Amino acid sequence: MTVKKSMKDPLNVIIAGVGGQGNIVISSLIGAALVKKGYFVVVGETYGASQRGGAVVSHVRISKETQYGPLIPDGCADIILGMEPAETLRALGQFGNPNVLTIVNPRPIYPLSVLSGEGEYPDISNLVETIKELSDKTWVINATEEAQKLGNPMFANVLLIGALIALGMLPLDKKSLEPVLEERFPKAFEANMGAFKRGAELAGQIR
Amino acid sequence: MSSIEIDAPGESVLLMGNEAIARGALEGGIGFAASYPGTPASEIMDSLAPIAKKIGIYAEWSVNEMVALEAAAGASMGGIRAIASMKQDGVNVVADFLSNIAQIGIGRGGLVLVTGDDPGALSSGREKDMRTIAKWYDIPMLEPANIQEAKDMTKYLFELSEELGLLCMLRGVTRICHGRGNVKLGELPKMERKAYFDDAHDTRDPKPTRYVPFPPALRYAELEKKFKKARELVESSPFNWYEGPDRADLVIITSGGGYLYAKEAVKVLKMEDRVGILKVGTVWPIPEKLVEKHLNKAQKVLAIEEVSPFLEERAMELAGNLPPTAPHPIFYGRRSGHINTWGELNPDAAIQALSRIMGLTYQPRDIEYDKKVEASKSYVPKRPVTLCPGCPHRASLWAMKKALKLDGRNGFVTGDIGCYFTGFNASGFFQIRTGHCMGGGIGVANGLGKLGQFGFNQPVLAACGDSTFFHAAIPGLINGAWNQSNFVFVVLDNSATAMTGFQPHPGSGMNAMGEPTKVVSMEALCRSLGLRVKICDPFDLENATATLLKMINDKDGGVRVVIMRRECELIRARREKPPYKVYIDPDKCIGEACGCNRFCNMAFNCQALTWDKKADRAKIDDVICAGCGLCANICPQGAIIREAA
Questions:
Q1: How do residues B285-311 score in pLDDT, each as one tens digit?
Q2: How far is CA B452 from the centre of its chain?
Q3: What sign does the CA torsion over A192, A197, A202, A203 have?
Q4: Is there a contact between B180 and A41 if contact means CB atoms under 8 Å apart?
Q5: ipTM
Q6: Does the domain spanning B3-234 belong to CATH 3.40.50.970?
């Protein structure tokens, strides 16, 4: 299952999505789990105006040795977790490199510029192909679609954490995420655990 | 349990910078906290208020930042340690009171003001550097370089404030306030202080006129004395240090998030043997002797800091003091153009500046990859900020646009700060034409509405939100009523301070700690000024448009008030399921043949109204559709169907 045997230090993870998709939930959950395991973690994120349908990018930097700065330098991401395909490509453009590992949810959210006719949204299969060209390895996870099957598209974020962890990209396992999910979602723990497991299953299928 | 109240000294937890500041305030023994929401500082109060009652402190969202700081100062005069927190713009709002209390000094309780500066203006109208206000008013200020320091410095500031008898400030920047990182918790003290006001009993300053700026010259002399002590204390502060070779070719002087970027730049460029870092945590006053010592040794100095060349210029001033025989360093930074004069710092800015000065080239990835990226750029559409699906402001701005068109005199909207500010772009049909600060919209309308004698006849709609109404619009409203200005004041009332996370305000019927309070009625307040007031639901587009038009055309002139009231969709959605299932009837929608020019999709600008090119039909994105059903009103074919869900 493991993608990399020893962890690069610092391990730089970009989570890219659109305001409202809940990507800050991803960065804070994996961050909390990593701190519990004794890692230095720093998360940089932008929101505020971006809450309103703009692009949201979280930077997660993980180290055994020291606390890094809250932003990943250009071209230096190790993992890109894309919650929306155009945003995944935008993140690759800035932070990607030939060794980057990418997980992408191919479900688009159309930006205002596309609605108002100012720009065009690319064909999804071309978009995914381009993402693959810019990544060392790419996993396409239909997170929104699968989350809808589980009853709520908002589960896409926790589902993607399941995939990320099942693929062995982070020094975390299912056990280390459980208590964090329970803390964060005391009322909806089971449902979130279900999404987490579904994400892990899907990652297994792709391999 | 919220992680900021964990009573486990020594434990390491992941905290957001703002939570770390809140925790530092608790470790510093606060009894009182006051704030007004504003990005990036809101979560300080967001994390204190829910636990305040349980842990026995008082916490409030104040009506605005000025009252927040004044209230916190009152607590200090009662002997209780107090914190006021706000975004950079809030510090401008409190500037008058701040300049006075900075000079007069505090009460027995330590008093700390936190500013959330927003480099790059990610969630603001402009960049501001509040280190300059600390210098202007002689306020001791610290700036944390990571999340741990955000907590530790906040705690320490209460001791410092009491030791000096001065208000002290903490400067957080967005990447610290909204960043998350490891924080090792300290002890939560048991502070038992009895509150009483007594301005004569104080060993530091035994004058009965302690809280009155009289005589001003004498008070200034006293401030100088206290500030001199601050200058001495910072020389041995553990928040300042130098790391690197004893004799470096280049010394980076840095504060805040800049420190970690500087460290990364040195590491990435493998310059550890040649470059030293002077990290300054006490940004005002700066540790002059420490800085001078390193200026004396360095040939080159690079300043890496957020927003303005503050340390850079202070260091230049100190270099002017160096003896003529000393080697005078060359300065690099924002002034020299090695760091952009605008915009947020990032590691690349630090790496590029350092490599340029040291004559190195830095290429983070190979050129072939860059070429591929360049070729892929056309696939990445722009993603401007927009109003959320189901947002009542979209309906209000639509009604305003329609009413102004029907009136036909080229009327326009003066705006303000809040979610509706995005009405300046396509999401609000370009209706918001001016935008400066909280309360600015009604202020400028006061002036425009008095230009009739110069031939002005365009209708003016001044728009503000409900929280802004209480925060800053009331003086403008009273001024308009008093001076008989001519405009329509539109309150976009979505029942919350929505932009910053749905905090309550005086109209909410609830305070920060969740206790029920008396509702301050904005309509009653407006009516008490003798103004005509109409209230409408923006989702009833027809009535809302007619109401606005009637008020615009009111022959009596003066200030007329329209309150457009509907709860924020994000709050509604937390409580209940969507009211409607909305879909397109593919038989009624006739695609491009309609001649509507994709009216729902291209004119209404709700993210859920997409277009299926292959089918040549409108399409609702069911993942993001909020089910508000508003769009069913706008399709000329009646093809958008809403069914009660």
A1: 999 999 999 998 889 999 999 999 999
A2: 36
A3: positive
A4: yes
A5: 0.93
A6: yes
